[in-house]
Structures are given as C-alpha cells and as structure tokens.
Amino acid sequence: MRYNTAVNNTGEMDMTKYLAPSLFALVMTASAGAFAAGQNPLSVHILNQQTGTPAAGVSVVLEKKQGDSWEKINTATTDDDGRIKALWPEKPAVTVGDYRVVFKTGSYFSAQKLDSFFPEIPVEFHINKPDEHYHVPLLLSQYGYATYRGS
To answer: What is the DSSP letter of 91?
Structure first.
C-alpha cells in the first residue's frame, strides 16, 4: 500500500495540507464562540394569552440561589414587545447553579384594572452550561401561566 506524502524542496514533509483543515476548523469555532459571547446569556419574553399581545412594562427580577436564600442579581422591565433581551448583567459572570426569574405580574394586571390570582410568578431553573444562551418565555393570563426553556 502506498501513501501520498507531500515533501517540500528541502526534503521535509509538508504538513500544510494536513494542518490547513484543522486551522480552518479552529478559526470557525473561535468565530462562533466569539459570536455567542457577544449575546447576553439570558432573555425573557411574556405573552398575554388573554389578549394575544406582548406584556409590556412587567418588572422581572433575576436571582441566584445561595444556600437557603436567594441573592438578587438584576432587575429589568419588559419592552413594548414583552421582552428583556439582556437580563444578565455585565457582572457577575454566568456560573453553574440554580437561578430564578420572578415576574412581577400583579402590578401588570393592576395597571389594567384586572384581578389576578398570581401577584408574581417565580420560575426556577438550573444553568449547567454557562456558555449557552438561556431563554425563559412566559405565557400569561390572569389565572394561569405556562413556561418552558425557549431558544
């Protein structure tokens, strides 16, 4: 069996044809990682199921579990599209652990002069891959809600 090898003009093996694909893959991986690093690691979206419209103006609190208590990390308010695109603050960095977002829905419904069974909705979740993006959507009505891990 004969193998093709590339030998340069000095008699040494030319590794360019072997290294080029590996180098290309490394550059592409680094580019993808840099793109992901530019995206905030946590976003939320609230849709009012009763009206079919985004829930604008809802305060959302991000907390991290510390032993038996919760430490507040950030607070933000949903925009006109019912979204907070960047709930994670610049510091601290994302780490593995248990977190929760608390949607302050009572004041949202009160502002509309509507009753609500849930004054706030805490959604606990676990981050096990700090380099991934986490999205927490909330489908909301006065007397019920649903949530899941979005993308």
So the answer is: S
DSSP 112: T
pLDDT score, position 11: 62
Mean pLDDT to the nearest integer, 12-23: 47
Count CA atoms closer than 13 A to 99's CA, side-chain side.
24
Mean pLDDT lowest among 27-31, 38-42, 62-66: 27-31
86 is a domain residue: yes
Q: How many domains does the chain have?
A: 1
The pTM score is 0.74
Annotated binding site: 45, 83, 148
Q: Which residues are annotated as a binding site for substrate?
A: 45, 83, 148
Distance CA 14, CA 22 (A): 15
Would you put residue 56 in left (φ > 0), alpha (ψ -120 to 50) or beta? beta
Domain with residue 85: its CATH number is 2.60.40.180
Give the separation between CA 58 and CA 118, rounded to whole angstroms. Answer: 13
Count the neighbouring beta carbons within 10 Å of the beta carbon of residue 143. 9
